[in-house]
Amino acid sequence: MRKTGLMTAACALMLAAVPAAANADAESDALFLDMAKEACASGDFAAFLWPYANSAPVRARYTAAKVGTGSEGKSRDVPRADYLAANDFPILMIDYSYVTGDSARRFDTDGDASKLVYTEVEFNTAQDERQRVDWQPGRFEPGEGDGPGTLIEKTGPGGYLLFSPTADCWQLTADIREAPAAR
Questions:
Q1: Quick check: 106 and 115 in contact, CB under 8 A?
Q2: What's phi and psi for 154, nearest 5 deg?
Q3: Which of 16, 58, 94, 103 keeps 20 to 30 A from 47, CA to CA?
């Protein structure tokens, strides 16, 4: 009888933690949505990418109706819902560094930071005001300040993201990735 009471109490505590975690996620997403809105208002694309990369609700709000996906010259348009449902955004930011989305998702599962794959991220503006984010995973030589440092070796395929301007911000219109090297 006593074991049952302890088990019931433990289950009640675990269930109480579920809404708290959900509430923290909702607060985090609300913060990311506010950050994206502020970056849009100030025209600061680099500040916009951080919440975009780290929040599914931000991606849902700022993704075009169709997104070009695939490799250069072999891309196809997929509906926003399909693109977002894949949950495969290629980069995320942890602390002050971008990492591959795959390694960040593994980190969320196992907590092993040694498996994070850092990426070089370069921002470019096209003549038509589209924003292009080139990303490349690699090995880095530590530098001064925040971030992974200087890229010294590519460790896998990279790609680029293309964001087109809207009336009040940007929206993702393409996620183009290099094909993995043949073995």
A1: yes
A2: -75, 135
A3: 103
- Determine phi and psi for 120, rounding to 5 degrees: -85, 135
Separation of alpha carbons 112 and 125, rounded Å: 35
Q: Which residues pair with 151 in a beta bridge?
A: 140
Which candidate, 77, 85, 35, places its Cα nearest to that of 58?
35
Give buried/exposed letters for 1-15 (b at 16+ CB in 10 A, else e). eeeeeeeeeeeeeee
| CA atoms within 13 A of residue 130's CA, in its CB half-sphere | 14
DSSP percent split of the chain into helix, strand, coil, nearest 5: 40, 35, 25
pLDDT in tens, 124-156: 876 778 999 999 999 888 776 666 777 888 888
Spell out the domain ranges in the chain. 2-177
pLDDT in tens, 83-110: 999 999 999 988 888 999 999 999 989 9
Does residue 81 contact residue 36 with C-beta atoms inside 8 Å?
no
- Residue 44 pLDDT > 70: yes
